[in-house]
Amino acid sequence: MPLIGPAAGAVVCRVNEFQKITADALKAMKGRERIVALTAYDFPMARLLDQTGAQLILVGDSLGMVVLGYSDTTEVTMDDMLHHVRAAARAKPRGLLAADLPFNSYSTPIEAVENARRLVAAGAEAVKAEGGQAILQQARAIVDAGIPFIGHVGMLPQHIREEGSYRIKGKTDPEHRALIEDCQALADAGASAVVLELVTHSVASELTEQCAIPTIGIGSGPDCDGQILVTTDLLGTSPGFIPRHVKMRGDLGTEAVRIIENWSRSVWTPPAP
Ligand code: KIV
């Protein structure tokens, strides 16, 4: 299996490259090996990511925009998530398969545990939810139920309708303080890792240094313990705008159109005059 090599200067983690990555193994990668995380929404993409050795595969609620054509993640339902988690789980990836709890599915600790259990029954090995101290009881209840939990702080896409835009967090003192307290609280609650989305690079670096669990950045600079991207952004197949932090490595969208047009020309004949 072509596995990703260690990041320059990083010490290789002792986790066996061919062993299944559990939530505990992911947590143990802090300070040892940079975590490569990507999103998958179906069986073929989860299989492709598995071939590359991705250590964390997230069935993200970003699927709302990049697969289902919704305008933002607030329209994603539990049924949407369950359908896509089942598909990705059929790939049985070596990396930890995590799934997002969608908007309005974790308003109380009881609801959070009930829906986390449904995602696990569909094949997820960990669940992620957005928020820090605001959802601490939910995070604790999920961990107490024996389900690995991943936090998500900084820009919270499920709050886009109140926020109005995808804005960088941590620029003001109150935001900086809140981020530190959120990460600390999530680590204390037993989270296995925390996603930092659109956090200023300096604050993300500080959080990574202070927090006992791995930080996985998206648009939050190079100093996090790992990086995650929406895979379709990286490949150039996302239907909407591509965020500024994504350095596309190819343009499979354009390539797909070229291939399909090429085939179409071999089939189609102009109408007879
Ligand atoms: O939904 C998602 O894909 C995510 C990642 C961008 C972190 O939450």
Q: Any overview of this molecule?
A:
- This protein has one domain: TIM Barrel (Alpha-Beta Barrel), CATH 3.20.20.
- Helices cover 39% and strands 13% of the residues.
- By secondary structure, it is α/β, with parallel strands linked by helices.
- Strands 1-2-3-4-5-6-7-8 form an eight-stranded parallel barrel, surrounded by six helices.
- The chain has helices spanning 23-28, 43-52, 63-66, 78-89, 109-122, 136-144, 160-163, 173-188, 201-210, 231-235, 252-267; strands at residues 35-39, 56-59, 96-100, 126-128, 149-154, 193-197, 215-218, 226-229.
- 3-methyl-2-oxobutanoic acid binds next to strand 6.
Query: For the largest beta sheet, what order do the strands appear in spatially?
Result: 1-2-3-4-5-6-7-8
Radius of gyration, in angstroms, nearest whole number: 19 Å
Q: What would the CATH topology be?
A: TIM Barrel
- What integer is the average pLDDT? 93
Helix/sheet category: alpha/beta
Bound molecules: 3-methyl-2-oxobutanoic acid
